[in-house]
């Protein structure tokens, strides 16, 4: 198990550790009764994880060791500028051509891994990392070589470099298109072989011909733009592309069948996914114009290569120019590669000096940012949260996790948490609030205190699902100023008993509610009782008969125990009726002190909660 709770947490934990000067050698009363778990060291922070002996509640200590750096394994050649950036922050191990076994062995010592398309980052890699691997950086666009499901299950962020090689790939597509049309590769080889075959290598013209671009994303649209410049009539098929983007460069979006049936040239630019795998096959080749020419700089797997050989032999496809193959490198005797009407390059689409430097910088910045706890703008398996949104949501992120932690600790032992409802009240329009981050942190708060699983933004939804935890979300629209993204967050756990009966609301759920005040998360409701206590340190909730002297009695028991009270608030139904007192404490009270509080005659129930 990794002892890190999230990318951001490592910094928070480090900060709190430095402020409380925890050291492994420092004896601390909090350590008694705790069994030490394996030690893990990551980038500047050594985490000692302890587990309570009697209750399944993890407790973490973080110790700073300033010289420790994260380790980043660069498994494929990366531009120098990127490596330099990585070295400023981490120990960088550039080890190329690792076998799958060597990669699995090395990975357990690495916090991040950077690959291009030549390395398979399989489930075994994540399993072998035993939780240490936090980020996989794909120095390029296609992430079909990374097992995303396994990454997500292991809470490992995957980031890519989606923009820096777009132009290079588009230029290579155009290079293949023109080279194929004029038999450049074949003619070059024959001249070098001492031949002069001017009539054999008569080509075809591009001007006025129809080019169908399949996949009208970044590369596809750049290819389209360039092909228009060559005087081609360009159509495109992409079920997800906005029509106005196509219109803006004079491209008509059409159906797949129309695209392949009317094209003289087809250029492939979609990702390899389950739905695009072998999208060009016997059936679809049969629908094409006889003599069509095909360019593929996307992924080999989008073409059924056997079917393409047949279509080439039958003359349905006159020529193909391929940069990518189902298996790379393809077999030496591959019928496809050896076909006289095929032009092949060894996956060179992104291989320009400029693109490689750009990609290296793009991925290095993304990986370092992710290791520092920043949310990545190019995350592939986690929500991408723009920086300004994140700044606004930050205190609500903390509030969310604390409400989750509080709510789950109020559940009586033996009653499983299955159904949680989260309500966000805000004066902003629903579309203006991205709740994925908040939901992930609530999930983290709900799950971590009762398990050894670590939850972060990447694996929160997966972990909740795996544990049968159903989290529903509701937005309540409030009148008022939409200046703040949220007014309050409410977490309700249904169908459970509570160890603090007052936490059960009139409708029968455990209910906690919080707000952010001056940037600090506050608990503002427990069950039907309004309270107001800042969510720092730990908390004692106490239901009593409202009467004079209660605050004093509890306060002096805590003072005798040398426990500092940070906050106190009483919420009551009516004067001299029942009240709930919420007391924030900096230290954990001793068992004797808690027992004494429970023995005050007016106290009907109480609970101690760790935040
Ligand atoms: N040969 C190389 O070196 C090289 C370099 C860069 C990119 N690539 C590959 O090129 C492809 C495109 O890259 P990009 O940066 O343009 O990605 P992108 O995400 O910007 O564009 C992909 C487009 O494909 C579309 N798409 C998805 N499913 C589709 C389907 N079934 N039919 C039609 N369109 C579909 C998407 O809507 C998207 O617009 C990827 O496969 C990438 O790996 C290869
Ligand atoms: O998807 C990509 O970015 C390209 O296929 C480039 O891959 P490469 O970095 O392995 O050249």
UniProtKB/TrEMBL annotation:
Enzyme class: oxidoreductase
One Pfam family it belongs to: 2-Hacid_dh
Catalyzed reactions per annotation: (2R)-3-phosphoglycerate + NAD(+) = 3-phosphooxypyruvate + NADH + H(+)
Enzyme Commission identifier(s): 1.1.1.95
This protein's pathway: Amino-acid biosynthesis; L-serine biosynthesis; L-serine from 3-phospho-D-glycerate: step 1/3
Keyword annotations from UniProtKB, A to Z: Acetylation, Amino-acid biosynthesis, NAD, Oxidoreductase, Phosphoprotein, Serine biosynthesis
UniProt xrefs under SMART domains: AdoHcyase_NAD (SM00997)
The keyword Amino-acid biosynthesis is assigned to this record: yes
ACT domain boundaries: 539-611
Subunit structure and binding partners: Homotetramer.
Family that this chain belongs to: Belongs to the D-isomer specific 2-hydroxyacid dehydrogenase family.
Protein name (database record): D-3-phosphoglycerate dehydrogenase
